[in-house]
């Protein structure tokens, strides 16, 4: 628990708006509950002893002042300058490094830098630095495209971690050719005078081809791909020995009407639903989850591999499963008319959706029918041709109960963000030919509500049993983040209290629903929250308004769920001693950190490949128009996101129109100094594609029509002068 609080304390103290407060006020700002205060105080004391925080005059808490030399992580900018984020945070924040004093450092490198005071501005001391040594290189291998230039063979690195070209020799040794995607190992790093030099160690294929881009993502994110022999042997043995007729003490529910609802391309069906009424007319929801723990035993080769992978990775048109397909798509997948072992959670509700009781069991089931979300939606809308009558009845009951549960959870404070995802349309070669917003029909919500209820039911049970387990936690946002959110929202014309509660945020999201600013406001709300993570710490899930929460419903694709299944199995066997024995051999804090990392890695890899594939498509559409919404404002341009494609691009200030454009940080808008024209977050804007740089992941855009015309600017300027004269005349009276 102290580790979580350490991270939250440092993050709050690093916040640009933080003003030193006393320790009790700091605890309140972080939403620390009274029962958690001792752990919070321990974390703070450890930070103070290590010199990471200080208590100054008036017992006010802050980060230590910036010293003359710091060690930190370098972040490069394409324009030559960069920033160092100190490994031990300081009150100043990141240190600016001017061009020509970066010592050849690259993004991610650990560097030592000297610090120089540059005088005060607006009452704040300004600093800059000079890198004096690169202590540790972040990486020595890069992926990029091979180019033949007059000065020789060069590699243009992919992504934003390294911007300069890399000189390579003897490209024939690996059979590399112009425009190939290659892996380069650095022999000598760049200096002020010379490019980095490297050697090609692998040719991935022709740049732009799907297979080459997949290989590039695998290298870039160090993704696990093939399973080793012991894992495959264990998986094959488990499949060969599986006999669904040998059920032991499992409850036989093969006669129940049970369905699965998944995306059209899904193969790993790990959750299924039943819904009945008991003798008193109460709903009895059954959530049945593939019993992966029966096949993947603790400490086995497959268990170790699943733990290392952390989760399945879903890329466009490609999946890297956490478990071999003979398990994930075979004996554990809840396929129609196949007997499968599951763990069942039964939740009984009254008519208002209040929980009356919960029950857990090991079961054997047989899916009545496999539906896609789209098929389920069509049935609910009355298009029932070809559907089984019992499935139609079940679906309608599921919708009724889901809406009751959703209403109850919303009243309790559950926050739902409306951030549509993008679905790619690809041809047979793997090239993206189109994209559109992903399906968001109500069956998605039905499954989401039932899965959340099951996750909460299991977490409540394990908390009551007082056994250690991996939770899915989402800390309450700190006061400063909420204060900044309230300021941002005012720029849209909406009001939030300075420290909004869940109800205020819900009201805001409801007010902007279906409006042009909806996406932008949902985005700033999301950015105001901390990310959910895995940890044994019992602090609940803020966005779900849940006190007890874990992940239980996807053990085929998430290691956290598999761990929870094992703890639940100990309860079902009435073996609490076994649960403690298993937990004793694991560091749940470290496992939580690791699987939180692998989850983020999977998301980053998916986002990166999606961006690459969409940019490749757009590189053939220069001049085409896009309907966008403003999602970011800076002092160098406007970030906008395509409503259809979901990709973000940049409009440079100079391309907005003939005016002097300034970013007003207080009003949070960009203002034309002569025309008075303003650009705000959430504003719709039609743009055209100016250029695409796939290796740098850059999309440059410009308004279809300049926001200010020379004539309008001139007219506005004349009006402004007249106004000033009139004002002077008024003052003279």
* Distance between the amino and carboxyl termini: 69 Å
Overall spatial form: globular
Q: Overall pLDDT, averaged?
A: 90
Poorly predicted tracts of residues: 715-733
Computed structural class: alpha+beta
Helical stretch tally:
17
- Give a count of the beta strands, DSSP E runs of length 2 or more: 33
SSE blueprint:
Elements: H1 2-14, H2 23-29, H3 37-49, E1 54-55, E2 61-62, E3 69-76, E4 82-86, E5 95-97, E6 110-121, E7 124-136, E8 141-149, E9 152-157, E10 166-168, E11 180-188, E12 196-206, H4 210-221, H5 229-241, E13 251-252, E14 259-262, E15 271-277, E16 283-290, H6 301-309, E17 313-315, E18 318-320, H7 325-331, E19 339-349, E20 355-366, E21 369-372, H8 373-380, H9 389-411, E22 422-426, E23 432-437, H10 442-465, E24 471-473, H11 479-490, H12 502-512, H13 518-528, E25 533-535, H14 559-572, H15 576-584, H16 588-618, E26 625-633, E27 637-642, E28 648-652, E29 661-664, E30 669-672, E31 678-680, E32 684-693, E33 698-703, H17 710-732
Describe it.
With about 725 residues, the chain is α+β, with helices and mostly antiparallel strands. It is built from 17 helices and 33 strands. The strands form ten sheets. A five-stranded antiparallel beta sheet has the order 5-4-3-6-7, with no helix packed on it.
What is this structure, in a nutshell?
The chain has 733 residues and is of the alpha+beta class. It contains 17 helices and 33 strands. The model is unreliable at 715-733 (pLDDT under 50).
